[in-house]
Amino acid sequence: MQSLWMIVASLLFACMGVCVKLGAAHFATGELVFYRGFLAMVVVGAVAHTQGIGLATPNWRLQITRGLAGSAALVSYFYALSVLPLATAVTLSYTSPIFVALLLALWFRERLVWQAGASVALGFVGVVLLLEPTVRPDQWLGACAGLGAGLIASIAYLNVRELGRAGEPEARTVFWFSAMTSMVGLPWALAGDVHAIDASGMAILAGVGLFGAFAQLAMTRAYRFGKTVVSANLAYTTVVFSSLFGVLLWDEVLPLAAWFAIALIVASGVTVSLASRQPGTPLASPSPAPGRHSD
Fold this sequence. Notes:
0% strand, globular
């Protein structure tokens, strides 16, 4: 039953992606990033208060590193959403578990078992196949941003792992990430033209912030009370929901090769998660896959 919380989180993350894509027509990326962080900070701060969780942190260096990496990943993800088909942008950002496996092997010198290594290779084959038929020449910057979001988010997840080992509550980590995101987005938003907010714009911005905040809370519950490997794999239902939204709202039609590539990337992430949970495997437990901590 607790695994249903991850499906709820995935649906909410997909709804946030829809709001970001809608908001890109009315607001600059910096504005969307600011409102995403500010509203989530308010919601998560209130939840932490009701749970009696203090917001002061003894691990501020890790929190700053995690916040900066997460904010950079979020900026890249939002930009990718503004220029790419919804399913393509979301799938590229969900390459983060693949990069996590690589970073654990290259940075932390953790042994990469052959199943995980094969899955990483499979994932990058999927990325190549996805980019080739679906990305137009004027969309390559967005494609690089989406892939960059997955790479940078993997760094954020490694910091989340260290914060968890240090005993930091999840709500506190999400709060400081959201606060830093709003601080990154504010000067960027003010540096450009600040757009007036009408009723539809307010609804879009509220969706960006609130869908993201409640998705994080639902995801936290899924990881806390459900089975980690099941929750990590169910996170990929965000790709399914985003694909459906793209078809229904924007008539996005991807070629068959693109759907095959998406399936390869999802299968790669799932297999990496499964390999990391095998007894005796030194790889860390799977991190929540963009849309998740870093979104």
